[in-house]
Inverse folding.
């Protein structure tokens, strides 16, 4: 069995990510995570005090990485439209790198965020705030119409997450010749073009009268 010095937190977190993605928080078991990580439970608890800490650490790291990448884009010198395209590509890239995220996020939405504490929610909030800075710049410069930042964020993040989360089902449909497949790169291009049209300053803004 690996010694403490040879067992990294990343090794345990990678095993936890696979377990949470497959079974959700409620169905995940620490003993299975330990087996996946090739450590005993005592070693796992040496690094993480609970299943809950593992879960929240995974999400906080992912949210923090996402907001950091978006802030770097927001602080750059590109035009607002290019920044939005880069932000969408960054979202898609992050999800490809962290394949557990779509499943975990959709399960958490279904559970009404019950497993998210204040610190994890604060890390999550950094993502739409970073994206909002890009939108605000575009609106202020006249490159975008008056777009609501949260609506703009949800317009982008929701389809990207759903596209990747639905990959197993789409693969089954494709194998049965019930639906043709769409490459991830083509889907990202579609989202980028759709958002560019939606943000265009000459697009009429329709408000609900209800």
């Amino acid at each position: 069995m690996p010694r403490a010095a040879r067992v990294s937190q990343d090794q345990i977190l990678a095993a936890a990510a696979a377990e949470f993605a497959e079974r959700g928080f409620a169905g995940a078991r620490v003993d299975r995570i330990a087996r996946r990580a090739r450590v005993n439970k005592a070693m796992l608890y040496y690094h993480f005090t609970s299943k809950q800490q593992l879960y929240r650490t995974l999400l906080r790291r992912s949210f923090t990485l996402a907001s950091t990448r978006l802030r770097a884009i927001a602080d750059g010198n590109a035009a607002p439209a290019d920044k939005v395209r880069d932000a969408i590509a960054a979202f898609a890239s992050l999800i490809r790198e962290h394949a557990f995220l779509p499943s975990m996020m959709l399960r958490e939405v279904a559970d009404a965020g019950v497993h998210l504490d204040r610190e994890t929610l604060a890390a999550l909030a950094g993502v739409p705030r970073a994206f909002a800075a890009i939108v605000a710049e575009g609106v202020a410069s006249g490159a975008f119409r008056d777009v609501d930042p949260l609506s703009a964020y949800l317009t982008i993040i929701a389809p990207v997450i759903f596209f990747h989360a639905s990959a197993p089902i789409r693969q089954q449909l494709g194998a049965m010749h019930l639906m043709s497949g769409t490459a991830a790169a083509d889907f990202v291009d579609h989202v980028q073009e759709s958002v560019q049209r939606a943000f265009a300053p000459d697009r009429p803004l329709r408000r609900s009268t209800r």
Q: What stands out?
A: The chain has two domains: 1-49, 57-199. The CA atoms of residues 57 and 207 lie 39 Å apart. The chain has a mean pLDDT of 91. The radius of gyration is 20 Å.
